[in-house]
Amino acid sequence: MTAMLASQNAVSAPTQFATIDDRKIAYRSLGDGPPLILCNRLRGVLDVWDPAFLDALAEHFRVITFDYSGLGQSTGRATYERKALAKDAKDLADALDLEQFVIGGWSLGGMAAQVVTARYAERVTHMILMGTTPPGKVNHPPEPIFMQTALKPDNDLEDEIILFFEPKSAASRAAAQRSHQRIAQRTTDLSPPIPEETYLRMLAETRHEDLFHDDGGYRDFLKSTSIPILVISGDHEIVFPVENWFDLNRECQSVHLMVFPQMGHGPHHEAPQICADLIASFVRNRPRS
Q1: Which of 1, 12, 250, 263 shows the smallest number of beta carbons within 10 Å?
Q2: What is the pLDDT of residues 54-79, one digit of tens each?
């Protein structure tokens, strides 16, 4: 495994590889400080994160992003089974000799982060959830337009506005354009996109009535854990409505909920500096008891 290169920014940080059992996990690392491992969204690979968000986080953390097994530049069997995604994050932490870490996740990655925290609670100091759902049955379903758009073989800027921003807001649409341009700045050492047949197969294999199937007592864990949890959401979250967190929030002792107005599924791409500052302040001022 190559040596860590913490001085790079998100556009230039090289892809490195951790050999774990019979697979290699592709990852990038930037910044110094407490380690923060970020789990990715549906169809996400290393290059879908907004560099402005990662660079802002790297002012406070050692930020680690990665490709799930079998996706992007990683090898192994590709699956969206939540325990397998969580194991990728935990195995990467082991390979990098991280005894404890902050775990974060966006969308599908937020489910993976919750499984990491429930299964390896002694390793996690804080959990950061962005645009995601609590486990089990929820009262507010996704809007159909999300999957109709998300499953297109190729998504253009207008699709990204629907998926991650607030189409009715001129400010949000402008922020989408800026984020799109920032992501496009990286032109080399890219992780290949996930083929349509692969993500459709993985979704079919893991389809349940509940979007986050609670097969591990995750909802009860969420209610009982004292690990500090920060949930960041837009007020128009088209796939994981924030109202599902309102339904649960008073039952949880450590969930902190931040809702951004006139934003959608990717508030950390629309307001990267604010979200990074919020995460840093939360980790600094809400220590694990």
Answers
A1: 250
A2: 999 999 999 999 999 999 999 999 99
CB proximity list for 224: less than 8 A, separation 6 or greater: 253
3-state secondary structure the chain: CCCCCCCCCCCCCCCEEEEECCEEEEEEEECCCCEEEEECCCCCCHHHCCHHHHHHHCCCCEEEEECCCCCCCCCCCCCCCHHHHHHHHHHHHHHCCCCCEEEEEECHHHHHHHHHHHHCHHHEEEEEEECCCCCCCCCCCCCHHHHHHHCCCCCCHHHHHHHHCCCCCHHHHHHHHHHHHHHCCCCCCCCCCCCHHHHHHHHHHCCCCCCCCCCCCHHHHHHHCCCCEEEEEECCCCCCCCHHHHHHHCCCCCEEEEEECCCCCCHHHHCHHHHHHHHHHHHHHCCCC
Nearest to 186 by CA among 16, 46, 74, 75: 46
Position 121 scores a pLDDT of 98
Distance CA 127, CA 109 (A): 12
Residues 6+ apart with CB under 8 A from 70: 23, 76, 77, 78, 79
Low-confidence ranges of the chain (pLDDT < 70): 1-7
Question: Please, what are the domains in the chain?
Answer: 16-285 (3.40.50.1820)
